[in-house]
Specification:
5 helices; mainly alpha; 108 residues
Amino acid sequence: MNTYTVKEGKTIAIISYITWIGTLIAYFMNTSKQNSFAAFHIRQSIGLSLCSFLITAIQMGPDMGMVGLILKIALLVLWVIGLIGCLQGEEKKIPLFGDVFQDWFQRI
């Protein structure tokens, strides 16, 4: 990946990590530019957002509060890893799920 691509897509990539609304905004910002660096981080962020919704649904179940809390903390750690990779200008996949997110959302 060349430096120009990273520099051009970095702002969009950072926006994608700011809640699921930021992910949507970044997706629509990137539709015209088609920046590969931004698209990589948008795919990672979409996966993290979906995991967050899933964890929230799990937390709503009876006696799942502590499990949900542990999962939310793990998700926060994955989010920080993704954001740090983005800020450093790297296409660093998040542990455990990064490859899966890239495969599932490859059309983005």
